[in-house]
């Protein structure tokens, strides 16, 4: 009897695990499903500019008002890493067939673990870039540099190195651009400007996004 109960308990746990993975075990599964539901109700515009990446884009909900001359689709989600964007690229990038893709991601990768290096970030970006080029070979790709923030200033050397190497990777490749916002967010003391950030000292206030708008706008097609 005891052996039978043990087997039954194991089966129940296994079933719960399978259901959990199917219904949202993967990071940001529910958020991705919300995008799909939204797209089924409101057909996404054709030939729009797709912004994709982490919460820095997700928390820019009025992004369209910053770029009125362009049609924007915002698919920033969660506190995503480049690995997460790769995981969901078939959901948040490829279906839209955009005229341009703007990516912001990377600092969450570095903050997720001490074992994640700038090399890890660069390799993940190269993987994402290659996947996009394979699926959408003619779509221009822009990468917004990893931003400096007060809460993650201890990661600055890794951020600077990742930015430098991603810029080098993109140099010479057709239909690409590296959008550098790093210096514009630093004060006279060479540190991130506190007034640009919310209380968490990570996410930006409208003043920070206003700086981004001025730098990103000339790079949009």
From TrEMBL:
Secretion signal, residue range per the UniProt entry: 1-22
GO molecular function, one term: phosphatidylcholine lysophospholipase activity
Alphabetically ordered keywords of this record: Signal
Pfam families documented for this protein: Lipase_GDSL_2 (PF13472)
The keyword Signal appears for this protein: yes
Membrane-spanning intervals of the chain: none
Highest rank taxon of the organism: Bacteria
Record domain SGNH hydrolase-type esterase: where: 56-211
Protein name: G-D-S-L family lipolytic protein
Upper classification of the organism: Bacteria, Pseudomonadati, Bacteroidota, Chitinophagia, Chitinophagales
């Amino acid at each position: 009897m005891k052996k039978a109960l043990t087997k039954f308990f194991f089966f129940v746990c296994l079933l719960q695990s399978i259901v959990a993975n199917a219904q949202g075990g993967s990071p940001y599964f529910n958020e991705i499903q919300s995008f799909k539901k939204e797209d089924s109700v409101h057909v996404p515009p054709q030939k729009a500019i797709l912004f994709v990446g982490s919460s820095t884009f997700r928390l820019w909900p009025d992004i369209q008002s910053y770029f009125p001359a362009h049609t924007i689709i915002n698919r920033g989600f969660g506190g995503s890493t480049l690995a997460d964007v790769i995981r969901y690229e078939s959901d948040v990038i490829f279906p839209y067939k955009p005229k341009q893709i703007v990516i912001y991601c990377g600092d969450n990768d570095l903050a997720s673990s001490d074992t994640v290096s700038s090399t890890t970030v660069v390799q993940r970006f190269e993987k994402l870039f290659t996947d996009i080029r394979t699926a959408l070979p003619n779509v221009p790709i822009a990468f917004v540099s990893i931003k400096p923030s007060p809460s993650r200033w201890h990661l600055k050397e890794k951020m600077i190195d990742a930015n430098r190497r991603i810029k080098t990777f993109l140099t010479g490749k057709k239909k690409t651009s590296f959008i550098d916002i790093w210096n514009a967010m630093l004060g006279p003391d060479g540190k991130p400007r506190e007034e640009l950030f919310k209380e968490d000292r990570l996410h930006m206030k409208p003043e920070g996004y206003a700086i981004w708008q001025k730098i990103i706008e000339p790079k949009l097609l």
